[in-house]
Amino acid sequence: xxxxxxxxxxxxxxxxxxxxxxxxxxxxxxxxxxxxxxxxxxxxxxxxxxxxxxxxxxxxxxxxxxxxxxxxxxxxxxxxxxxxxxxxxxxxxxxxxxxxxxxxxxxxxxxxxxxxxxxxxxxxxxxxxxxxxxxxxxxxxxxxxxxxxxxxxxxxxxxxxxxxxxxxxxxxxxxxxxxxxxxxxxxxxxxxxxxxxxxxxxxxxxxxxxxxxxxxxxxxxxxxxxxxxxxxxxxxxxxxxxxxxxxxxxxxxxxxxxxxxxxxxxxxxxxxxxxxxxxxxxxxxxxxxxxxxxxxxxxxxxxxxxxxxxxxxxxxxxxxxxxxx
Length: 325
Ligand SMILES: NC(=O)c1ccc[n+]([C@@H]2O[C@H](COP(=O)([O-])OP(=O)(O)OC[C@H]3O[C@@H](n4cnc5c(N)ncnc54)[C@H](O)[C@@H]3O)[C@@H](O)[C@H]2O)c1
Description:
This protein is an alpha/beta fold. It contains 13 helices and 12 strands. It has a single domain, classed as Rossmann fold, CATH 3.40.50.720. The strands form 3 sheets. It has a 7-stranded parallel beta sheet, sandwiched between helices. It has a 3-stranded mixed beta sheet with strand order 7-9-11. Strands 8-12 form a two-stranded parallel ribbon.
């Protein structure tokens, strides 16, 4: 398998690179600039140096096609995107990268359909809207209505329907995956990066306030990468989209577990009240049926592993207070 990971220097990209190299696949990172910082956080140089870098911008469709053709890419994991804050600040740029950029990926797979055997892309739980818009007493599966409350969520909805159109028009299959709060080392940007920053703050002995509270679905980055890897390994049959499910918890529970793992967190970490505007009771029954079993890492285990790794990285000078910004 020769995989192109767009946005491969991002958080999920670094963890997915680790998962794919661990399976002895060839990995090509397609990203704006060479920045292996998150790779250094997630794995050793002996591992990450095996991943090859190709500079590129997903808004340049012709470049994508020529790179994939020349490298003989057989699988694409499309992760490159602007996150919620960037899309809020500049919705036009957000649409250019997240929607047009994603169309360029699908065009590439369509034009090279004899060569590219599988396309897996990151959607998001942000396709769902405010929790209050949904029935409170049941887990939502993929048939639940999509009511995004952010531009970012709207772009992800658009991508899912464009994926469906590619299948209907061209029989181009694909798999979309909808993570919720991904946490673990390397998670340093985006609306739901604050729990990871709180763990980093504890490792650094610095105060940190998580600006929101409420419920969310905590998904350990290694599990999310494993989900992407499994989808890459099993060619899609049509335009499929899957919810993921990690550990559903409210912020007081996250805080309690953090203070159990590291008692000093009680003096350093605080949190707000605001519920994030995304439904959080999602069912991953279909993912488990098609790609499981994939048991989520327990939250206290994910917190502990993240804290221990941050401590090692801090001692090595690879994370600092600047990473809390
Ligand atoms: N992290 C989460 O909690 C989460 C949750 C739901 C969905 N997702 C989705 O998963 C994917 C990966 O998320 P992440 O947390 O790893 O993101 P990230 O912000 O850590 O990484 C994104 C990467 O994309 C690259 N990129 C941005 N614009 C690009 C462009 N025009 N061309 C090429 N590369 C470009 C960036 O340089 C960066 O390396 C995204 O599509 C995101 O929307 C993430």
